[in-house]
Specification:
The chain is built from 3 helices and 2 strands. By secondary structure, it is mainly alpha-helical. The protein has 2 domains: 47 residues, no CATH class; 44 residues, no CATH class. Strands 1-2 form a two-stranded antiparallel ribbon.
């Protein structure tokens, strides 16, 4: 009974880790999440968003590219407001 459970936990962890790695995150962290919480971990990694596909904009003060959801520039501390839609870059969209 214990060996079957370990095999199931290993393969859930492996599947979760592979999907997490494909989405740009750490394989080992997602492997542990999938092994500790087999079904819930797999569902969580499927709904996990890809950071590199998030829309970006430039800080008007220091010109550092930041994600659209960032409200304060991490480099210069400038308060960021909603930009002009033409100024938003969508890295995950091919055009």
């Amino acid at each position: 009974m214990g060996l079957e459970y370990l095999v199931i936990v290993f393969f859930f962890g492996l599947a979760t880790g592979i999907i997490g790695k494909a989405k740009g995150s750490s394989f080992w962290i997602w492997f542990l999440v999938g092994a500790v919480l087999p079904i819930l971990g797999l569902v969580a990694v499927v709904f996990y968003r890809r950071e590199k596909d998030e829309p970006e904009r430039q800080c008007p003060q220091c010109l550092k590219p930041v994600k659209l959801y960032v409200q304060v520039c991490p480099r210069c501390g400038y308060d960021l407001y909603l930009p002009d839609p033409r100024a938003v870059r969508h890295p995950g969209v091919r055009g």
